[in-house]
Amino acid sequence: MSNLIWKTDSAYGYPLLIKNLLRTPIVDRPDQEIVYRGEKRFTYRQFRDRIGRLASALTRLGVKPGDTVAVMDWDSHRYLECFYAVPMIGAVLHTVNVRLPAEQLVYTIGHAEDDVILVNAEFLRSSSRSRAASRP
Question: In the 8-state DSSP scheme, what is residue 15?
Fold first, then answer.
């Protein structure tokens, strides 16, 4: 029996990278509106621009390929932007489970050796209130 290697042609003319997922809507329907929970509206063109601005901001912060960027946020348009921007600059996206107890959050972040943590301001306010409430 011979060692045959069968190679199939790719169904796509480009690598399946996260940045390529937006290619078709950006080219074919850049003004198509994206609606998040009826609260946030923007077009694919605006979405691409927001992703680019986030990627640029992370790069200016010093994030480089191979770094780990943690995200602490609810399912939101901001989270979706991180889902694209972080891998597009070659960094690793670490989605932190915000429902974990504080001790497990600290362990998870430490274990992942996150270089940058993007946090929804809502979590910062709630932790400040919790600390203030627990003071004598």
Answer: -
* Of the options 3.40.50.720, 3.40.50.980, 3.40.640.10, 2.60.15.10, the CATH number for the domain spanning 18-134: 3.40.50.980
pLDDT at residue 37, as a whole number: 81
pTM: 0.77
How far apart are the C-alpha atoms of 136 and 127, rounded to whole Å? 16
Angle at which helix 77-88 crosses helix 44-60, to 10 degrees, equals: 60
How large a percentage of the chain has pLDDT more than 70?
79
Structural element, H or E, at residue 27:
helix 23-28
Domains in the chain: boundaries: 18-134
| Segment 71-118, tens digit of pLDDT | 999 988 999 999 999 999 999 999 999 999 989 999 999 999 999 999
Contact assessment for residue 120 and residue 72, using Cβ atoms and an 8 Å cutoff = yes
Separation of alpha carbons 118 and 57, rounded Å: 12
The total number of residues written for the chain in this structure:
136
Instruction: Give me the residue label for tokens 């932007």.
Output: 81
